[in-house]
Amino acid sequence: MKKKTFVLVVIALVSVGFSAMGQRVDRTNFKAGIHGGVPFGDISDHSNFELGLDVGYHIALSELIDTGLTTGFMNAFINNDSVDAGPVTVEGDFPNIQYVPVAAVFRLYPTYDFKLGADVGYAVGINDGNTGGGYLRPIIGVNVSGNTELNISYVKVSDDYDFSMAALGILFLF
Fold it and tell me: Could you say which residues form the signal peptide (predicted)?
């Protein structure tokens, strides 16, 4: 039941993003970049580094607010060949943990060079046994030039385990 409710909320947010896209077309931004993260929570027992790709399309609703859609790819590198599951240690070749997020984007610009926001949606699990889950990514960004943004974020995927990380990224405006 919780998963159905979450999916409905994500669909509603994406719909709001699409309807907002039709409001103003005088300022649109395609953004692409990379990020690296340090996992914590349950995933930190098995991974100490994550690397990802970010792609998004933003539309200005006003001078202070953007909305849009984002996707990308996240890969948490597994750093060992055994997993300690309580009293049992499982040996084997474990795949990296991979997600493709699909999310609505909201950004607030207190100044031209500084932004606060969040990506809210669903992270599709693409490696074997990865069911995916709700995706939340609060973000703080700073413009370092007219077409380059440096950002820090917290990523949370509500999956069967705790996939959380702190990330540092760079985005380029096209």
Answer: 1-22
